[in-house]
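ENCODED BACKBONE
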Amino acid sequence: MADKDDHERVWKDFAQAVNMSPSEIEKWLETDESRKVGYKPDGGESVGHASGRRIVEIKRKRKADLTGADYAHMRKVVGYVRRHLAQGPHEEHRIPGSRWRYSLMNWGHDPLK
C-alpha cells in the first residue's frame, strides 16, 4: 500500500500535469478532433479519450475520497504527459493543430496553456 507521502507527491504531480479544468476536458472530449487521435486497441474509444473521462471523475472528487485505483491512474497520466512533452514537436508552428497536442489534451494537458 502506498504511503501518505507518495500520495501527496502523486497529487502534486497530477495537479501540475493536468492543466485543464474538468469542464474544459469534457468540452474537448466532445470534439471530432479528440475522437480521431490516440491508440484504439479494439477500434472503439482511444485509450487517451477514456483516460480523459477518468481524469474528469478524479478531478471532481475530494482528495480524501480518492482510491488506490485513482492514484494509480493519476501516476499513469503524469507519466504519459511527461513522456509526450519530452517527445513532442518542438517547432512552435506545428503545435496548435497537431495530433500530438490533441492527444495530450485527451489526457488533460494543453501544451499551449
